[in-house]
Amino acid sequence: MNKKMTFEEAMTKLNEIVGRMESGNESLETSLSLFEEGSALAAFCYGKLQNAEQKIKQITEMKEAGGEKDA
User: Where would you say this protein principally sits, based on its record (predicted)?
Assistant: First the structure.
């Protein structure tokens, strides 16, 4: 997996993998490979979401702290 991949690209690829696996047309070997790739993509997306959530918390806390000083 490309570390420079965006969240949106990873989600698109993950959705493609899910679709292929749900189709039931893949061999066991291919399904295992897809599952492994999908798991890595899911972890990547989760990490991106965690980072975004942390940034939002920091911005919110800074805004609240600034608002208290102005009051």
Answer: cytoplasm
CATH for the 7-70 domain, from 1.10.60, 2.60.40, 3.90.1280, 1.10.287: 1.10.287
Query: Rounded to an integer, what is the distance from CA 48 to the centroid of its chain?
Result: 5
Please, what is the angle between helix 7-23 and helix 28-70, to 10°? 150
pLDDT, tens digit (0-9, with 9 covering 90-100), for 1-16? 677 899 999 999 999 9
pTM over 0.85: no
